[in-house]
Amino acid sequence: MIASTREVRTRNPRGAGTRAVLAAGVVALAAAACAPGSSAPPVASSAQPSASAVRTDAAALGDVTLTIWDQEVRGGQAAQMKQLNAAFEAKYPNITIKRVSRSFDDLNTTLRLALSGNEPPDVVQANNGRPQMGAFVKAGHLRPLDAYAEAYGWKKRYSQSVLQYVSYSADSKVFGQGNIYGLPQVGEVVGILYNAAKLSELGLRPPKTWEEFEAALAKAKAAGEVPLQLGNLDKWPGVHVFGTMQGRHVPADQITTLGFGRKGASWTTPENTRAAEQIVGWVDKGYFNKGFNGQGYDAAWQAFGKGEGVFLIGGSWLIADLEKVMGKDLGFVLPPGTGSAPGPVATGGTGLPFAITAKSPHPDAAAAYIDFITNADAMKVLTANGLLPIADTEQQKVKQGPQQDMFTAFGTAAKENGLVPYLDYATPTFADTLGAALQDLLAKKSAPQDFLATLEKDYKTFVESNG
User: Fold this and answer.
1) What is the C-alpha to C-alpha distance for residues 232 and 164, in angstroms, rounded to an integer?
2) Residue 463: which region, alpha, beta or left (left: phi > 0; alpha: psi -120 to 50)?
3) Best CA proximity match to 376, nearest among 158, 138, 70
4) pLDDT digit string (tens) for 175-186?
């Protein structure tokens, strides 16, 4: 698998400037389409078109040029886009695709200005979180896609645990619910990577329960191994470890409420306290490598690939690089459940979704394009290019080993609505707040209660000011 958008995002932290909420006035969302070929923007309206008004016969739309902005610039990401775009134009010769491909950082930098102009692209990839997609929804720059979702059956193609990542209320205040504003192609899931050879040497098997996982950590430590490799210099990698821990103690619906920054939950609960206390307990027991707070992310997973560590909590985006050096010794499983909560709960999400701009004069053609690059045949193309398709994941044929493990893990979590959001989605400043607070917690510079109080302050301040 080519490194995912999540890896690009997290390995190039956005920082305070790009994490700040983008200022924009609330305007009415665009609705009815203009005639094909027209360069005029659609008339603004607060109502969405009905599914019956949507034209799904792309061949009957006349001559159209669709301008597409994407960030699929690396390896298999670029290859699949080129292949799918060519196939779309072959099927619909009346539609010409003008593709503009930019790096993730370049797209983030230029997209806001482009969307506020008079002639924005027709289809864009916009980062799911509040600083980008949320701000664009608030400003009326993106078209709600619910009518197209009904006409094309997208709600059957995508589970609700996936659609929540592309849903906002019309005023953008509620993330994870409301209208659909885009569709992603690829999925992401955080799980437990393991060294199969080391497990065998220790007389262990891949853990099927959380209790087995903790017992394996203890046995690895007793044998002189590094139980769990971590590089938390950049602060965010520890968030994945804590999120995995949290999923064993806190109900998934509460994690979702916290992760999406909605009212109705709290960080200062007994369940979150137990999660914080347990991760500190892992530090006390020596389950992490020495100096983990001063080690970088790349150094950590590369060390794991060289045999330093039995386990690594990380994302599906690491599979391709680690498989190159570990081969059949690499394994990947969902974080196992506990005796009291056996269901799959895993931090995860999507790659950058494809959205239709409110001023696009060709919304029906744009929707046909998005449907085409996310349909069942497209999922096969993604698989063939080493990516993790977000739909029909379990139906794909891949070789036995880490890639199959990854497909099974994501497919199970998505199908059983076990995906919970990345915790840094919560507020525009939460990535910095959580990362710094967690680094202090792991360094034992703050107690679990102080750690959670810091998170609660950021969370409560945001949700109360957000109405």
Assistant:
1) 28
2) alpha
3) 158
4) 999 999 999 999
